[in-house]
Amino acid sequence: MKVIWSSLAITRVNEIVDFISFDKPDAARKWVEQIFNKIERLKQFPYSGRVVPELNRTEIREIIYGNYRIIYKIQKKYPF
Q: What are the start-end ranges of the H helices in 1-80?
């Protein structure tokens, strides 16, 4: 499985890291490492996240990390 980040997701991660690093640069580094580790896991276990309750579509799932929802879509074929 391949993980493709949307530009919005990358922007949001950068915004959160900037916010955390304002007071705690080490915590920001740790946070971003853990986010990337969670996402990497999806390559092997794409169905490990739960179905997003308000959408109830099996291909749209989420994993929770702290106060954040990481929403992703499973596609069988890549568009390119």
A: 7-23, 25-44
